[in-house]
Amino acid sequence: xxxxxxxxxxxxxxxxxxxxxxxxxxxxxxxxxxxxxxxxxxxxxxxxxxxxxxxxxxxxxxxxxxxxxxxxxxxxxxxxxxxxxxxxxxxxxxxxxxxxxxxxxxxxxxxxxxxxxxxxxxxxxxxxxxxxxxxxxxxxxxxxxxxxxxxxxxxxxxxxxxxxxxxxxxxxxxxxxxxxxxxxxxxxxxxxxxxxxxxxxxxxxxxxxxxxxxxxxxxxxxxxxxxxxxxxxxxxxxxxxxxxxxxxxxxxxxxxxxxxxxxxxxxxxxxxxxxxxxxxxx
Amino acid sequence: xxxxxxxxxxxxxxxxxxxxxxxxxxxxxxxxxxxxxxxxxxxxxxxxxxxxxxxxxxxxxxxxxxxxxxxxxxxxxxxxxxxxxxxxxxxxxxxxxxxxxxxxxxxxxxxxxxxxxxxxxxxxxxxxxxxxxxxxxxxxxxxxxxxxxxxxxxxxxxxxxxxxxxxxxxxxxxxxxxxxxxxxxxxxxxxxxxxxxxxxxxxxxxxxxxxxxxxxxxxxxxxxxxxxxxxxxxxxxxxxxxxxxxxxxxxxxxxxxxxxxxxxxxxxxxxxxxxxxxxxxxxxxxxxxxxxxxxxxxxxxxxxxxxxxxxxxxxxxxxxxxxxxxxxxxxxxxxxxxxxxxxxxxxxxxxxxxxxxxxxxxxxxxxxxxxxxxxxxxxxxxxxxxxxxxxxxxxxxxxxxxxxxxxxxxxxxxxxxxxxxxxxxxxxxxxxxxxxxxxxxxxxxxxxxxxxxxxxxxxxxxxxxxxxxxxxxxxxxxxx
Lengths: 282, 480
Ligand SMILES: Nc1ncnc2c1ncn2[C@@H]1O[C@H](COP(=O)(O)OP(=O)(O)O)[C@@H](O)[C@H]1O
Ligand SMILES: [Mg+2]
Prior knowledge:
The complex is a heterodimer of chains A (282) and B (480). Chain A is built from 11 helices and 10 strands. Chain A has helices spanning 7-23, 73-80, 111-117, 132-142, 148-161, 165-168, 181-194, 211-224, 237-243, 261-266, 271-277; strands at 31-41, 48-58, 62-66, 91-99, 102-103, 118-121, 199-203, 229-233, 246-251, 254-260. In chain A, the strands form 2 sheets. Chain A has a 6-stranded mixed sheet, sandwiched between helices. In chain A, helix 5 crosses helix 7 (181-194). The longest helix of chain A has 17 residues, at 7-23. The radius of gyration of chain A is 19 Å and the shape is globular. Chain B has 480 residues and is an alpha+beta fold. Chain B has 4 domains: 1-51; 54-104, no CATH class; 107-175 and 316-477, MetI-like fold; 190-311, no CATH class. Helices cover 55% and strands 13% of the residues of chain B. Chain B has 17 helices and 12 strands. In chain B, the strands form 4 sheets. Chain B has a 4-stranded mixed sheet with strand order 6-7-8-9. In chain B, strands 2-1-3 form a 3-stranded antiparallel sheet. In chain B, strands 4-10-5 form a 3-stranded antiparallel sheet, with no helix packed on it. Chain B is flat and about 125 Å long. In chain B, 31% of the residues are buried. Chain A binds chain B through residues 81, 83, 86, 88, 112-113, 115-116, 119-120, 122, 124, 126-129, 138-139, 141-143, 177, 188, 191-192, 195, and chain B through 140-142, 345, 347-358, 361, 365-366, 370, 478, 480. The structure holds adenosine-5'-diphosphate (ADP) and magnesium ion. Magnesium ion binds at residues 73-74, 203 of chain A. Residues 73-74, 203 of chain A line the site of magnesium ion.
């Protein structure tokens, strides 16, 4: 497998992770998302795409989902912010997901409010064909924010937080489509941050980026953990080791192993995990 | 040559025949295009050259053709004919012919077609866009949606004459309308709209005319006419018996009403009223005379009319024809709009939803703006084709009126917009049909036919070309 990252950021991240490890030995430490016996189906229960998933996602940590393509990583991610609602026949068939203590599959939960709390960044960067500024302001505007100075402030703050401000501060009025691929993806992250969520879900955020842009986004992800809980789906195991504190390995709709990243990659408990991370399949 | 790649004889000739047949078919298309176009241009162009701009700016007129004493042939409009007669009082007029619509120009059919297309665009686009948005953004797949889609596909295949007859039955004679005059006899069902639903609580519903020689006292829903020294005085009482208006004859513009009429009506009503007991009078509904008088007093006393909801349709009219055309193009519009919606990347919807937008916000802010240009051009392109349709409008709103649709609509300084749409109008395809099939054929009418057909062709082609160019432009501009 190609090594895409330079040593510099890699070693930096490793040390950051080591420090965190000593602080919390247990994964369940203040879980933001609690998944219990979850089964999920795209066809009203005929076949379960996800089966009996149990995991807790800790606060202010980066959690990586890895596994071969089609194993259900995106599906689980989209359960968290109920993006699967858009599919008529999609259904949680068993178990529950609790986010910050409340069950999100409860019909009384408003997915609109939920999604403001749980932002999402997509695999294919999808800025609107509007100006850079309007892209970041989108979430605020639909949330009813009218105050120009407030929006200005949050736009600047979000772009800074997404490590994009210096590159775009002079071209806020330009179309977002004129940015490079990596900048577009960071713009999408800024757009998500602007809504001030507490969790950010990222579905293979770097898979369409070149190595240099990937490095920048990866660095960004590691800094995001200070303020947000991040869940990142990746099919790139080096990336998981670089950015995440804990890693969940999925295979054919099941959660095979979930542990601290350092432990899972160096000393996997399951044979399947070992086969996967050593590149024997997937 | 004895190479193994040598050409075999039989294959070559088969190839040649196939090519010839295919090429011949292609040339046939071009040939028929040239024949049709050539004929229209060759015959129409001289007419346009001769008539000039007046062909477009004059209404159709009657045309006279005759020989004078020198055996010179004249083609004159009625006005020119009158002038000719004045100038040559003793001139001999031989074998005089006249033909309707053969003189003047095609202004009124052009304008009629314009209005029909505009009405059709507004109706078809608003309904079509709404339906397309629902189908592609809101509806979940299911048996009902399947039926809807089947209906749309089938609607597209219905012959246009069937749409014409449907429009006649539905929009002209059944569609529910709110009318100010009593429902027509054909009305399938009519309800009087209760007064409380009116914009203001003052309506003349149930008002009766009453006369008093003494100054008016009270009474409910009455217009009491009182003869005073300085003329008539009208007192209007509402349902609770409170006086809402008291108007003296001299306060009303003296030039407006024909007071003699009104006094005659009053006398008739009074005599009828005297022959009935008051109970009978107030139990029966308003008599014809009373209705007539009230309609005269209505503008003077500024009374509100009664309103009915009646299933009687609009009669053949512009709005009925426009609705019929809209029904006809609806499948085209919905399909075009859905296509434009599908072209908007799913990512835009996902992004908006993930940022906490509602479904409607998503549609309005991050789907519709990007689909709209494509929707507009694609559906306008489809809609413009109805400009050439005759069958759907010939029963539902196209008339050979010779008049512009707004003539006589201004009454007492007020434009009656509602009535405008309830009028019939002329239309280009119908006009051509009239010219070529409904009036006696002679050399008088031929130039008009040729000119009208050429202008019509040019317009339809220009519209089609513009929308194609527009669509290509927008396609190029909107890339993501
Ligand atoms: N919208 C959908 N409708 C039906 N099946 C789906 C849909 N999206 C994904 N799937 C199926 O669910 C399984 C898991 O998909 P996904 O979660 O996208 O995998 P991953 O992200 O791990 O590659 C796959 O077998 C895929 O075919
Ligand atoms: Mg995926």
